[in-house]
Write a structure and sequence with these properties.
Largest sheet: 7 strands, mixed
Distance between the termini: 24 Å
CATH topology: Nuclear Transport Factor 2, Chain: A
Shape: globular
Structural class: alpha/beta
CATH class: Alpha Beta
Helix content: 25-40%
Number of strands: 7
Oligomer: single chain
């Protein structure tokens, strides 16, 4: 899987300077976003932005491992009772533009890698930064579940 991740990263870097196509489906910066795992990631982002705790929780594996801000949360329940609500408030108060999103599916596993630009004001702080997200998904009992998230900026 590491080889797939590295090859996708290098592919993304090598095509970053090409002209922008008219739609995300045609863009080399947006690969695999219509796949089932890509749709789960999109649904997860929408649930967080809409502050829908139930919908967001359903997309996480029970034993999800989340790395965020130097901390670790080791289950969906731990995340739901700790950082999820503050993440939802933060995302609802800010604007985020997806710069690139690549999803690679291999059998019952998938890796989603994205880069976004966030701006706005939160808790009297002006924000303007690029962030990165890696999400690993696994097909469990016929459904794609998020098993790992790593957010950084």
């Amino acid at each position: 899987m590491l080889v797939c991740v590295i090859s996708v990263l290098f592919t993304s870097v090598s095509i970053a300077h090409e002209a922008k196509p008219n739609s995300l489906e045609q863009s080399p910066m947006f690969i695999g976003i219509k796949s089932a795992p890509g749709q789960v990631v999109t649904q997860f982002h929408k649930a967080l932005k809409a502050q829908d705790k139930i919908a967001a929780r359903k997309l996480l594996a029970d034993d999800v491992l989340i790395f965020e801000g130097g901390g670790v949360e080791r289950s969906a329940d731990e995340y739901a009772h700790h950082h999820m609500l503050s993440d939802m408030k933060y995302l609802a108060a800010t604007n985020s533009e997806l710069l690139e999103h690549n999803v690679k599916v291999t059998g019952n596993s998938a890796v989603s890698m994205s880069r976004s630009k966030t701006s706005g004001t939160y808790k009297n702080k002006t924000l303007n930064y690029e962030g990165m997200e890696t999400i690993v998904l696994e097909k469990q009992l016929g459904e794609w579940k998020i098993v790992h998230i790593h957010w950084s900026n």
